[in-house]
Amino acid sequence: MPPSGAGAPAAGVQAPAGWGDAFAEVPRAAFLPPVIWPHDQAGETFARVDARLDPAGWRAAAESDLPVVTQWDDGAHTGEAPGREATSSASRPSLVAAMLAALDVAPGMRVLEIGTGTGWNAALLAHRLGADRVTTVEIDPAVAEAAERSLALMGSRPRVLVGDGAAGAPEHGPFDRLIVTCGVRRIPPAWLEQLVPGGLAVLPWGTPFSRHRDALLRLTVRPDGAAEGRFLSLVSFMRMRAQRDASPPRSAELPFHDIRSAAWPPHGWHPFPFFAGLRLRDAAYAVQRHDDGHTQWLYDLAGGGWTAGVRRGRVGPGVWVRQAGPRPLWDEYLDAYAWWRAAGQPDVDRLGMTVAGSGRATVWLDEPSHPVWTEPPG
Ligand SMILES: C[S@@+](CC[C@H](N)C(=O)[O-])C[C@H]1O[C@@H](n2cnc3c(N)ncnc32)[C@H](O)[C@@H]1O
Question: What's the pTM?
């Protein structure tokens, strides 16, 4: 175990102010199972590491600043290859540190965490605030049980509840702070209702468009029950179970036409796709890599077609775009790109959100008086 007060949760990661002892005394490795899947973000791949076969590799991954998948396909996955969908993980230590810094806790505060996962974050909170101040909710009973085992081995006993975190934990509130460690499409009203006025919520939020790329949002609850705050940075999280994004429909046999487009909007780990999601309703986006370029896929989630913008090294300037079905997705995408550029190519930290007392969310650019997205009813 690292020495007390060392303050470095992983290679090159600095614990936020006030969190040095917690990070030094509560190592992530103590919360990881023998088989883990560190995410190689450069190659977008997952390599299976088994502590029994490769103890040094396992320790290096556990102590790295990489996110580590601990469950695929809600536990149904078996075998060596990665599963279809990562459904539980330990986030990268630098992101855990950033979220705890944003949470801005002080002694005596009560915190609710949604998404217990491995239990590491709950253990950090319990170390800082006291176990009796921390409640964490996990939807997957097997994940919750493993987290409780790890917590007990570390002598840490925050309250671990099994259930749908969308309901919060009304019987244990109100809370001063809420931290959500799964991606959210709609903010459940219960969360803000269970925070005290002036309380803070830190959560990853996004539209279905950019799928696993969300932005970290920090909301402050106002005395009238509404909440408001700004986005902080791009983040990647697995989705809350009930709010998982639908798989893009595979539309067969749609008529298509090819066009040549001079513009190629930025893709991947870039703020633009997040902004595009505020403009393109009921649409999703994916990027396919080739040896010599990329394809940007756009899908109409209502089943009205798809668009593929293809850029290959040998094609020269511009891209070929194939649009299938009635919805001109590429045109909408280029309109969104023009809008984003006209706004000065903002990063996500120029965006904020207001959640009205009714629960309806509005995203704005720079000021609440400049809305750019309103939550659809329902
Ligand atoms: C990224 S992991 C959480 C990481 C965790 N905080 C840690 O320290 O290891 C996301 C977790 O959220 C859980 N989850 C998904 N939907 C949920 C829901 N509706 N309520 C509670 N937990 C949920 C998943 O099962 C998964 O374990």
Answer: 0.94
Cβ–Cβ < 8 Å for 175, 193: no
Backbone torsions φ then ψ of 113, nearest 5 degrees: -110, 135
Question: Do the Cβ atoms of 195 and 201 come closer than 8 Å?
Answer: yes
Separation CA 157–CA 123 (nearest Å) = 8
Q: Which protein residue has the closest C-alpha to ligand 1 atom 16?
A: 240
Alpha carbon of 143 to ligand 1 centroid (Å): 9
CA of 26 to the centre of ligand 1 (A): 19
User: Ligand 1: which of 28, 32, 150, 182 to mutate, most ligand atoms within 8 Å of CB?
Assistant: 182
Give residue 340's Cα distance to chain centre: 22
Residue by residue, pLDDT tens for the chain (378 residues) are: 333 333 456 666 889 999 999 999 999 999 999 999 998 766 678 889 999 999 999 999 999 999 999 999 999 998 888 998 899 999 999 999 999 999 999 999 999 999 999 999 999 999 999 999 999 999 999 999 999 999 999 999 999 999 999 999 999 999 999 999 999 999 999 999 999 999 999 999 999 998 888 999 999 999 999 999 999 999 999 999 989 887 777 766 777 888 888 788 988 889 999 999 999 999 999 888 888 788 888 999 887 788 888 777 655 666 888 888 888 999 999 999 999 999 999 999 999 999 998 889 999 999 999 999 999 887
Which residue CA neighbors atom 5 of ligand 1 most closely? 117
